[in-house]
Each structure stands twice: as C-alpha cells, then as structure tokens.
Amino acid sequence: MAHKISDACVNCGSCVGDCPVDAISEKDGQYVIDAAVCTDCGACVGSCPTEAISAE
Length: 56
Description:
- The longest helix is centred in the last third of the chain and has 5 residues, at 43-47.
- The chain has a two-stranded antiparallel ribbon. Strands 2-3 form a two-stranded antiparallel ribbon.
- It is mainly beta.
- The protein is built from one helix and four strands, in the order βββαβ.
- It is globular.
C-alpha cells in the first residue's frame, strides 16, 4: 500500500530527497506520491513537518 500526501502539505519539498525510489514529484503545484513506484518504506513520513504523509 502506497503512502499519500494530504491537503495539509505546504509544498516545502522536504520529503522529496528522502524517498529512495524517487516516487515523490510536484504536479500542478502540489507534491504527490506515485503509488506504482512507492515501496511503502515510510522514509518520507518522518521528514514531513506538517505530518501530511500517511499510509493510504
């Protein structure tokens, strides 16, 4: 099950560099996680200052 970024995201980008498989990208001004690429490792969760990332 992939992780998801909620509307609480403030687009700081701190999660992007922590993703080991580059599943996080910016799309239309909002960061999104590609479920097909995400390995559910959770590395991005700890780097999010607004706790906007959770398991889907």
